[in-house]
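Subject: Interface between my chains keeps coming out wrong

I've been trying for a while to get a sensible model of this assembly. When I model each chain on its own everything looks fine, but I need the whole thing in one frame so I can look at the contacts. Pasting all components below, labels as-is. Any help appreciated, I'm running out of ideas.
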Amino acid sequence: MRVRHLLSPLVASARDLLPIVVVIAFFQLLVLQQPIPNLGELLVGTLFVMIGLAMFVRGLEMGLFPIGESMAYAFARKGSLAWLSLFAFALGFGTTIAEPALIAVADEAAEVAAAGNMIDTSDEAKAFYANGLRLTVALSVGFAILIGVLRIIRGWPIHYLIIAGYIGVIVMTAFAPPEIIGIAYDSGGVTTSTITVPLVTALGVGLASSIKGRNPMIDGFGLIAFASLTPMIFVMAYGMFI
Amino acid sequence: MTLTERMIELAYTLLATVTDVLPIAVIIFGFQLLVLRKPVPRLKRVLAGFAYVLIGLAFFLEGLEMALFPLGKLMAAQLTDPAFISGITDHVTSFDWWDYRWVYLFAFAIGFSTTIAEPSLLAVAIKANQVSAGSIGIMGLRVAVALGVAVGIALGSYRIISGTPLHWYIIAGYVVVVIQTYFAPRLIIALAYDSGGVTTSTVTVPLVAALGLGLAGTVPGRSVLLDGFGLIAFASLFPIMTVMAYAQLSEWRNRRAKGSN
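Reply #2:
Try treating it as a single job with all components included. I did that and got this:
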């Protein structure tokens, strides 16, 4: 019983990893026709990934989902829109400003801007630009979660907001400097980290289930969608004004 | 690398994950204690859950660093290398888009397989399965999203190779999403929009970035700085379409099954 309890999550994560192993082996052995280097490292690494994924899923169900949901219920019971809005903004801003993927993208963006003569090529100018960009994206994610939470409470249909966002992206694309467009489009995808996603999803679903007249399926999801849309608009705006 | 060095590496990765999660923990427990002023239900279990998530992510990232990233990145570089491309083609001086056929297949395969292993997508799929009382399958949703990422990255690679402007593809994608929204079942729409953002995370981004940089750096006339970006944008747009298509397909199949009875 106990052994099965430990083994089945490992088997599940092994199954999740199998496609990557097959793809890498296929290209390495058949297309590039080279042997697989460091087979030992590869096996230990794959084992690490399996253990990590299984523990992550366990922690998700014990920690991240319950805390996200219980906070959503507590805020709904408290009934203070101001505190909930502040919490939503803080959660979006706070989880994004420290996101390593965003730091990497911001540094690359500064390189692009310097190469395109948009800013000075000195290190200080680049650091200033990169920090400004990070702050912009973090503000935009905070704003996105805030709007998303308001949408759940008011029951606004998501597609109108998303279509409005798409129009915003298209309009900004016409005016933003061409160098920034690729970075802006990518910044939408990199903002939401592995810890933020489960928390924010549980928060949205929890809010939608605790408010009368909301359907957790229709109204509970959608926070991540806003968080990946607003950075595109904000980053293009940043590119226009700097 | 020896075992001791490995353990030190793992400890560093764990430290980095702890630093990442610190602002989140401060916000959550700050609001819980100061604003909600209620004890966290089953606090011990929740804290243990956080510990599991942190240690799990550290193992996950360290394992990827050991096993998959070096090989995957090397592979992306080799497949886009002109020396490899000229080996499979009879064009000598300039390559056309079809000479990169292995790149498209690699982009598709790596996009699909890394998305299946993406932890944040798994989290959303588990939640969607719970909320929909089982009518949305965990694996079904993940496969739909992974197919979207696969098509997106393959098309994104074609865009870098052909040098066509990014925004036309994205705008065309938006038009398709808006049309699909009109026809798709209402219950899936918010989840479909969400699936765009969750796909590109820990596993996918480093490998896809390596592919983009490899292509932009070796295809003649492309610049790493200007053309290397954009693959992530493709990978976040196409899953929206495939998830809505998945819902439309299952609705259509249900209706047909009912009709035949």
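Reply #3:
Confirming on my end. Residues 80-260 of chain B form one domain.
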